[in-house]
TrEMBL record:
The keyword Manganese applies. GO terms for cellular component: cytoplasm. Presumably involved in the processing and regular turnover of intracellular proteins. Catalyzes the removal of unsubstituted N-terminal amino acids from various peptides. PROSITE patterns: CYTOSOL_AP. HAMAP family: Cytosol_peptidase_M17. This is Probable cytosol aminopeptidase. It comes from Pyrodictium delaneyi. It is an enzyme of class 3 (hydrolase). The lineage of its organism: Archaea, Thermoproteota, Thermoprotei, Desulfurococcales, Pyrodictiaceae.
Amino acid sequence: MRGSIVVGNARESVDAVAYIAGREKLDWLRSIDPLVDHVVGLGDFRAELEETVLLYRRDGVPRVILSGAGGEDEWIGHVERLRVAVAAAVRRARRLKSVKRLGIVVEESLVEKAAGEGAGKAWAIEQALVAADMANYAYSLHGRGEKPHVLAEVRLEPGDDEVLEAARAVAEGVRLARDVANAPANIMNPEGLEQAARELASRLGLGIRVLHCEELESLGMGGILAVGGGSDVEPRLIILEYHGGGKRVAVVGKAVAFDAGGLDLKPPQAMLEMKYDKSGGAAALGIVAAAARLRLPVDLVALIPAVENMPSGRSYKPLDVIKMYNGVTVEIGNTDAEGRLIMADALAYAAERYKPDIMLDLATLTGAAVVALGNHAAALMSNNEELASKLEKAAWRAGEPAWRLPTWPVYEKQLESKTADTNNVGGRWAGVITAAKFLEKFVDGRPWAHLDIAGVAWVQEKGPWKPYYPSGATGWGVRTVIELLRSL
Ligand code: BES
Ligand code: MN
Ligand code: ZN
């Protein structure tokens, strides 16, 4: 069953009603009814962040959930307090199989504080709705096992139809990104990715072109061809266009449907997570979907290089020299640094063909990003101060923190090669940054920002832990880029 968010009176015709308030608003909770007053009076609910309590009553809605939004001084900020509290209520309700419909009532001053951090009250309520939908997500698996329980409906109060429409657009984008990233690599291979993109394009009336081997060869896309050559499934470059008028923006998303490492094969444990190596491309799909549904005033093009990085008799090899779309030659130091090679062709092509005002890329590019920042922030690198600062702010507002790392020229030395213009790897140190320095060679000097989402694209052993990240893919990047596009 696919959940649905709605707005309206949350205290009637629901199986459970949740009340959301911060620590300073225990009085508001106590005024709800004698039962809640009693429980709060006992001191058994203090509205700490992620604290929930479930109560039963005989009259009215039979189940009451209280979900805390913590204090005013939480480091995560007010809108994130709101998201977390709403999501925690959804998660609590989901544990009860008999609950199909959940109402959520948010205390007013929390909405107002959240509103101050973004574009006002409607924006804050939209954020809460999207968080509710994200918490209500489950990847629908094939087979006969018991399916995870999701709520048929989550109704938020306050809210109106306009807010709801915007929230659904964003939430659907996140769902799409998650579905694509979560899908097993045998189904969502480069062929499957093309199919998903075509379905999206016809549903939303987007322009679509898919370049296959023949065209990739005549265009000279040596990166995509080299990486994709080791697989029995043809590599391709998927291009989606949405024309809303306004600034020209290109979003490039890494879609390595499966990263076995190529001839520099990964060990089994590392390979187990590599169906998620298409998360950047999945996010790019979610971004165009949401932007189109929101009718944002931008000319957006999404470029998704889709490949499998496999070992075989046709694989590219260590020390090969390949030639990229923009003519730059690359010595292969490691076939497992494949993401930057396919991204490079897509970036160079985007720069030349679309002349974008802004280029963005999202990629699960390096394990080094996880070493540097763990699972709680993406790594952000850019050649443009204004764009970097806008993106950093958009990411924080969206609840998807991104932390900037430098891209000073001195790092480029690590990429030097004796046989080609550059190597594809830069050694052990600053691996996040040298990967970005490699990509920078392909953006033709245009304003560009790179998000390395290796640590945040799916829920790993150490996070990211948020009640709106149930498990598997997080859809990271969809909300950030939508926030950025709205701020242009
Ligand atoms: N897809 C991986 C990066 C990755 C690793 C993402 C772990 C998430 C979790 C990427 O293609 C890769 O293998 N990178 C190498 C680069 C190295 C060979 C320079 C890495 O990070 O080890
Ligand atoms: Mn790799
Ligand atoms: Zn990879």
